[in-house]
Amino acid sequence: MKIDIGINEKNREQIAEGLSRLLADSYTLYLKTHNYHWNVTGPMFSTLHNLFEQEYTELATAVDEIAERIRALGFPAPGSYKDFSRLSSISEETGEPPEAKEMIKRLVKAQEQVVKTAREAFPAAEEAHDEPTADLLTQRMQVHEKNAWMLRSMLD
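The structure assignment produced for this chain is given below.
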């Protein structure tokens, strides 16, 4: 059935592509954060274990919202590790988990990357007057900017 929401197909496709990259980055960050939650050790164990759990729990909801927005625009949401690997600008964790301080540094970079990916997707949504996507992107930028700030504060 034809989608008639006031945004032409070309613009919807461009927006969905940006959201797909955001979804891939968000899912990769979810996995990285969950991995760190399981594997963190050291004097900050309790603090980081709990913080990482809060962050990956929030991300679990976020990836669903991003995927559902892609679907509302009429396109399939990527949903495989292969797709996410191709689309994500965040590197996946492999091998032995790093020390706690290095985990924090890597999560700061990943949080900041999600902000940049959301920011890159914003102009297409704005140009098409796609307020729901613009709102979603704004919310995601706010969350990840705050998370990056909080993590950076632990490194001082």
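Interim note for the steering committee: Helices lie at 9-39, 45-72, 81-87, 100-127, 131-153. The chain has a mean pLDDT of 96.
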